Structures are given as C-alpha cells and as structure tokens.
C-alpha cells in the first residue's frame, strides 16, 4: 500500500453553511498504479490531488502515506515526506521563469542537499532521457508548451519520487503533444512509478489502470 | 546552493531594473553617508591611543565658578607646577610646557627668516620621559637639559635644513625673534599615529627665561592663569585619582585670593583624562589647535546617517513586499519542489545581500563625493585612504550585513510564508495584509523628510536674520590691519597711520584695538558706588583713539568723545548705563567709576552694539583710550574706512596700503581683514550646519520620493484594468490622476501633521540658544507642506498620467 484515504471531508464555511469541497472520500492506492481522476470543473479533482500531495489540509478523516498518518504529522514532517516521495506536474507547467531548463530540473535536488557532482550527473541523465540536452540553457519562455511540460515532468522525476501527481498535465497542450506526454506517463508507470492524474479527457483517462469519478466533492461511482 | 542563490538573485535584479535601481540608490545614499560619518567618528575617537600608560595620563586644568556661572581655562597658574612636582603624591611623573608664538626664526644658512613658526613650546626636562618620541639624532637625556637647546621634529628639520643629514643639523644655531639663541640637540620623528601632540620645535624651558615669556615662566602669582601654561601628570595607578584630586583641591583652597574669597568665587583644578583631550568639551586642546572635535556634532551626524539608512531600508521593505505577488508563483513552485521556509528566507536574504553589496560598492564612490561635501566638518588629517584601515573595512562589511537583515528579513518572511496551494490555484492574489505596514512606513519616511525640510528653512531663516541684522555699528567697506605685536613702538604705528592718511581713496583712519565686534575680548572688573550700594560688574574694554567711534559710526547718546587717546576717561555703552541704574544717558555723565585713585569719570554714553555673534547678548562695555601706553600699548590695529561706492578700486588701495606697510615693517607679513568678513566668521558653525541640513534634506527627500515613485508605479500597474474600465465609463485624465494619487496624498498629509509639531519643538529649542532670534513663522510650515505635496504629485504623475492616457482597449484585451 502506498497511500490510503479514509472518510476525508474538506469544506469551507460560506455564510454560516458548509460548502463541501471533498465529501467522504475513500481511496486506496497501491504502488505501481496509474489512476485517473475524472469529473467536471469544480468537482474537486485538484483539491483531492492537493490533499494527496499534502499541499492542502482537510477537516475530517484519515490519510496514511507509507504507513505514516499524514493528518497527525507536523507541517515540517509533512513537507519532508512529500519532498522525499512526491513529484508534481501542473497544467500550467509552473516552471520558474528566471531559471534555465537545466536549473529548473536541478532545483529539487538543491532542496534535498544533493552534492554538486551527483546533481550534475542526475540532471544530465534526465536531459538525455527526455531528449532536451540541446535546450538546457534556454529559459521557459523560449520553449513550446509541450517542451515546457517535458521539463516539468523531468523536474518532477529528478528526485526519484514514488508518486507523481499530475493536475491536468495536458490541459494546455494540443492533441499531438498530449499523446506524447501520456505515452511518457505510461512508460514511467511501467518502470514502477505510481501516477495519479486529474483529467477532463476520456482519452487520457484511458491510459490509466483505474479511473475514479468525482461529482461535487464525492465519489460518483466506483 | 549559494552559487544558485546568487545566480537567481542576479537574474531577479536584472529583471526588475527600475526597482533594483531605486533600491540600490536609496541604500547607497544611506550607506555612503554612514561610511563617511563612521570614518569621522573613528578618526576623532582614535586620537592619542598609542601612548604608554595612556589611561594614567591627565592634564590639569582650571575651572572657575561664581554666581555668574562657570568658566574654564585649560592652563594652570605657574606656581602649581612646582607644587605638583614636589609635594603632590600619587604621581609618577609630571611635565609642564608653555606654548609660544615666536614671530620669526633665523639661522646663518637661511636667506631670510622663517616667519611665525607654529607649534613651538618651551618644555621642561621631563617632557621626553613623558612622551615616547623616537630619536633620529641626539638623545632624550641631554636634549633639553640646559638653556639654549632645541629639539626639532623630522618635518621641521627638513623644512629648515632641506639638504642636510640629521646628524649634520645637530649643533646648528636657531635664533628666535632676534634674541633667543638655541642649538639643535636632537631630531625626533613626528608621531605617526593620530595625536594632538603636534609640537614641532621643543625648546628647553630654561631658554624661555631669556625671552618675552620670562614674566610668565617665572610668575609666582597663584591667581594669574594662562592657557599657554600646560601641566600634564602621569599617575602611579588608576586608584590614585581621588587622592590627587583631594590634594589639588587643597592647593586651590590654600592659594585662593582674598578677592575670590570675598566675592565667593571658587577655583578648582581639574583632572582631564588624556582621552578627553581631543574633544576638549569646555576646554580647547592647545592654544594653536584650530580643530576641536565636538561630540554633539558627531552624534547628530550619526543620527543623520541612521535616518538615511533607515529611509533606504524602508524603500526596500516597501518595494519588496509590494512586489511580493509577482514572485508568489515562484515561491509556490519552490515550495512544492521541496523548499523549506528557511531555505526561501535564505534565498531572499542572499538577494538582498547582493543588492546591498552593489549599493556598498557604489557608496565608496559616493563617499568620496560626500567627503568633499562635509569638508566643513572634516578635520584636515582625514583622508579617503583611511578606508583601507582593516577596522573600517570590517565595519563596512558588518554594516552591510546589518542592513541586509534590517531591510531583507521582513520581506523574506512575508514572501516565504505564501501557501503554495493558494498561489498555484491561480486565484487572484492580493497582498492587502501588508498594506497598513507599507502605509505606516511611508508616513514615517515623509515625517523625517518634512522635519528636515522645516528645520532647514527655519535655520536658514535664522541665519539670514543674523547676517542681515544691524550689528549697531558700520561694517561695510571697513578693513583693519594688525601691526606686528613684537614691535611695540607706537611711533611706527602712528607713522604708518600718517602715511595711510595720504592715500586719497581712504576716507577715515583710526588707531585702536580690535574692531567693535571680534573674537578678542578684554575685560575688567569695576566697582561703582552710588552712595547706597556698590555695583560690581564685569565690563568689556574697547580701545581706540578719538576717531574710532566716528569711523565705526557708533553714536554718542550723551556726553562727548575722549579728549585724547591716553586720557583716563570712560565712554560706557547703554547696557552698562542701565546696569549702573541711570535712568537716562545724560544722568551718567561725570559720574565716577572705580575707587580711590583708580576712579575714572564717565564722559560719554555710546549706543549699544553687538560685540560678538548675535547669538549672545550685548554685554556692559566701556570705550577707553590707551591707558597703559608706557607699558604695553593696546592701540595695535589700524582701522581704515574705504570709499564705499568705489569697491572696484579697492585692490589698488590695498596695494598702496601694503606698500606703505613695507616701508615701516619690511620684515613682517601684511594681512588685511574686512570687518564684515570677521562678522561672518561668527556664524561659521551655523553656516556649516545649514550646509549639513541642506544635504540631509535633499537626500532624505530624494530617498523618500524614489520610494514613493516605486510604489506608485507598482500600484498603478496593478490597477491598469480598473483604469481602463473607468475610462470607458467616461472618467477624465484628471479624475483618474486624482484617484491614483489620492491615497498617497492622504499619507503625506498625515506625515505633515505629525512632522509639524516635532519640527516646531526642535527648532524652537534650538532658537532658544540665540539672544537675537527670528520668529517661527507659519509660512515655513505652509511652504514645507505645499512643497512636499507638489513634489509628490509631480513624481506620482510621471507614472499615473502615462498609465491613465493609455488606450483602455489595450489594457482590457488580455482579460
């Protein structure tokens, strides 16, 4: 078992009444799974991903990640946990504009205090693997959307995470680029990386081994 | 990691060129001011630190206290020297010396004498045991152990004997004032470190007994004190301070004059520690020392530096917290990539540090400029090269680190506390939470700026008032020449006077003492018996011949002028007349002042005039003739009234006067002073203060306005959409401008309301120090308030107008 959500509730108070963002979510993810979360806009896909990614909290329920109960961990411990095991891929890529491709990929290693020589080797491998060696000194604004997302994925993978959380990774891409990215995810999954992606597209969801449907904060059907 | 931080910092600085520029400039101004001021403080606080047992060295000084207040003399009465050396215990060594001013020094090899050699003393044999001089030739023991011996410093020896080796100079004869002959016995190195002991020629004190100083050196009167008589002691240990003090108090008591006992005046001998010498306080350093360090000035300079630094830091905090939204995305991403809050804080501090290093480098250049600006406060010995001092470098590095924390820490905390989720959700993100802090900081900046502005205007007004106010006597086109004081012949002076009378452009001439207002004072204590009670008062004396009052246009209110220039008669001023209790000037005429054979009649009453700076009150004064001509003539200065309308020809007149001077005093230097220049010199301190204030004002306004500009640019850019919508709805350019400036104008208004009472209080207190003072008019405050609002409007409009005039279609298109 990689992670387990039990009866997760998340809400905001609006005018005295609760608006539920997540309602009684139960989810068990094993290592090596490729899960797609689907649902209309506002159904809570991103919120669920953020909760799984420990970027966001929740009001009720239990969350166990690799046998640690995340809900009872301190902020610092929690960030250590996701730093170690989770990589993020975003719809809007969220590369740091001021950093080159090389530096963007390198950044997570800096925060893990990896030695310079090791860093160099790891980043070089990653550039090689994604075929972007020639672009390593360019800034994000000089790349196409698909290339930016490749860098984003490379960055998410560099720290060798067990789990990749992808929030509509192809939302800003055209269909050809989308296909390439999804093929890449599939490949990664075959190598053993667990992937959870949020998506609108049935086509993309089909790449996953399992699909979860959300509606108004709750599981629609299993 | 650090190289990465620096790289990112560089790119961010480059990306926001304008903001970085504002940040760097505002910080650089503060840092450079701190550099220069720090340098000055360091310079003044490191005088005479190198002497062995420096903490045991004290100078004995004299303090007088009476009902009228306290007065100070940094010399002592001569008999105290012998008493201290012989009978005071707790002292391991005492040395005394007399500062003297020879008018010339001659040697057989000189083609002509050196005039007015400076820094010459007569010192006793202990002098070289007391101060550790390095002997380049000769030795300390026999240097000044007998009459007619002189020790020269290296620099003076080179000046007198440029081509001789030190050993060859030994044995040369130097003759002072044509009468005192000395042999050079030793050459010593000048002190390399900063010191106030800058003597150049040290003559054995025995020699002085053959000179004009004879009377002073042999003086046995406990009650005459000259500032040229210097006495230094070295204590056995720090514990003996109180024992020595007690003994000195006893000596003062034992030798008090009958007069001082009768009138309840006390004299005490004080111990002035060596490390207090440079600051002088109530005392000067030595007779010939011109520069006197002033703690109060140093402290106010430090305040100014601190304020400028603070203003720079505020700009930094304001601009960076305002910009925070633009960096929110980066922060969010970094957090999801695993950055801890601490790591982010470090990253931002590095960025701040880098900006500060830029500012620091820029400041070194600016500091060179500021050293010139502050020249009026800066002692001659302070050079830019002092920057190479390791202590100063250390201070500079420390300063930059402190400023980094001061300016960077808060923005770093704000930035690093963003929650990644809210940032990445792309929700419109506002930094409203820090708006009140930014507002507060702007208000603070403008309070400082406006206090400076008001103070500058008010001080300027006061100085203008002092300069323009009638002194009570004529100052225009009047010059004076002091005749050489070594030459006491009154006949020569009168001869010169006659020669000058023949120059047609000179309208009036007079032989007298100092001008009516000068830095010299002669005073005496006189008694007036009006039948019932005695009125004892201290009166100043002004010497002159029968033309003196006419030349200076000083009016007689009653009575007549002096009959001749040696008759014993008083012309008193109106203030003294009031002190004596006469209701009208007429009433004072023919009254006798003084007792018995010293009684002198009042023959006239002259109108009051200011004897010194208008800062001080008019003191009781009497105009008298040359009573002691047989002993020492006081009429040593020739006063000339030039033609006022003919100022173009003054230089030819001055040449003619110089020619006449050369025929009578061929060997003496000719020096002519204008009375109005002398008067202006009373206000040197004020005028350098104005200069300082002007700069502080300009710089603080500049920094504050730069900060304001930065914030306006930022807030305006964030409201581009709003401006576009309002424009489509029909808002005019003026309305839009007002909308954008309104918030800031309110803040400046609040700052004005707070600054006004602070400035009023400060300036009001400062003005209390002046006997003649200008009023604190309301218009000073109005000018300041309107001026700053106008300035702020202009600066803000640079940005707001250009934004408001943009095509709204453009700004709304992106949405």
Automatic annotation (TrEMBL), chain A:
Residues 3-222 form the ABC transporter domain. The keyword Nucleotide-binding applies. Keywords: ATP-binding, Nucleotide-binding, Transport. GO terms for molecular function: ATP binding; ATP hydrolysis activity; transmembrane transporter activity. The keyword Transport applies. It holds the Pfam family ABC_tran. Belongs to the ABC transporter superfamily. Macrolide exporter (TC 3.A.1.122) family. This is ABC transporter ATP-binding protein.
Automatic annotation (TrEMBL), chain B:
It holds the Pfam family FtsX. Residues 20-250 form the MacB-like periplasmic core domain. It is found in: Cell membrane. Residues 303-418, 697-808 form the ABC3 transporter permease C-terminal domain. GO terms for cellular component: plasma membrane. Coiled coil: none annotated. Keywords: Cell membrane, Membrane, Transmembrane, Transmembrane helix. It is a multi-pass membrane protein. InterPro entries: ABC3_permease_C, MacB_PCD, Macrolide_Exporter_MacB. One of its GO terms (molecular function) is transmembrane transporter activity. Its main location: membrane. The chain crosses the membrane at residues 21-43, 296-317, 344-371, 391-415, 441-460, 692-715, 736-758, 778-798. This is ABC transporter permease.
